[in-house]
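ugh ok so i messed up the first submission bc i forgot one of the chains. this is the corrected input, ALL of the components this time, i swear. 454 residues overall. if the numbers dont match what u have on ur side tell me asap before i send this to the collaborators (the ones from the other lab, u know who)
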Amino acid sequence: MKKPIEDILDICLEKVKEGIPLEEILKEYPDYRDELKDLLIIARNIRDIPLPEPPEGAMASCFLKMGEAVQLNKQIRQKGELARPLYFPSPVWVRVFLLAIIVVSIFWGTVSLSANSLPGSPLYPVKAITEKVKFLLTSNTRGKVELRIVYSEERIKELVRHLDKKRELNTELLKAMLSEASLALGEISRLPEQERQVYFSRLEYLNAYQRDVLENLKPKVTSPEQKLELENAIQMCGRRMGWRSRMDGSRTPPHKMGPRRGQR
Amino acid sequence: MAKGPNDSVSLKEILEKGRLLDEIALATLTEKYYLIIFRYFSYRTKTREDAEDLTGEVFVRMVGAIRNQKGDFPAWLFRIARNLLIDYYRKRHKSKETSLEEIDDKALSRSSKYERETLTLEEIKKLFNFLTEEQKEVITLRFLENYSNEEVARIMDKSTGAVKALQFRGLSTLRNILKREGQYKNEKTD
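and heres the new structure output, hopefully the right one now
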């Protein structure tokens, strides 16, 4: 196979370097003779150019500049060493791993702390977002019902703690509690028959429990408007206790649950 | 073989010390590479002073960055030089590629000068204007610095095939320019 001209030129250049006469080299490549001759002459002429020399003292002045640079860099390195914590491991993957652990710990710490937060606290939005994310990530209906019931329970717990702490009824929490229970009912209706009965029962117990807790809160509420809101909520819980029979059309009478004291 | 150092065992040791800012090691590296870098700039800058300044800057930058130096040292040093040269061109508002009109003008002005066989540094600098940066680098390293193809390939981070191609294209461009000016008329008739 014929060699490409780039390779032939390179071979010829090496031969010229070895001192073989040009004509002798060119005899081996008659097809490229003219072209190669030009290129080899140019290469030879470039090789013959006297090499430029630096001005006298150029290297000395370079050493001076370098000396300054060395001192400066030594200082920078010393500062860097001092600034770097001694215990911090240097391999990059260890740093990345530790950083990931720190980020995850901060995240979970914040989420855990926010679990006990109340409205008005800086962590409460974290709790609200966590709940929303959990709900969005739950794909099955049963899981969604569970979450709605848990959130409704959580709201009443918050309501009680808020009242104890701030001496006022948080009507937003009250509404949220009722709304979560109502939404849970909507989700239950999409469940299969057998599971539906189980969750209706749980919801009835929840309503009874909430009514019971709200009844107990009555003496602590002083504002007339808030008292009215509380009364409405208690009545709503009472009405909701007959949900199963209405939704289901079953003959089972609604649970007659008296206030269960000591549930709080 | 190249004039440039390739005694990698001792170079490794010098580099280890250099990374710790050992002044003797840094001076040794500078002594070894100063000329090559100076010449690299000499063929590409307008004045000798520019080449001297840029060479000094390469070694100052070397001091600052040697701690993180990896891979082939000469290739790394040439990368610093290349980056400085780009800044130099940018500062001087000088385009690396010469327009066709410029080529014709320069060719006309040079035609009488090239009526001889040898070239001077100034002439080669002018001729380099017609080459791409990579062609210039190959021609410089191969014919002025006497590096082997393998060494040039390592410095330029290219294959030897690519270096050969650049060498061929670079020389061909120079031949075309010089031919146009009658430089090789006499030689052809020899």
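quick check: Chain A has a mean pLDDT of 83. that seems consistent at least. The interface with chain B takes residues 5-7, 9-10, 13, 37-39, 41-43, 45-52, 54-55, 58-59, 61-63, 65-67, 69-70, 73-74, 77 of chain A (CB under 8 Å).
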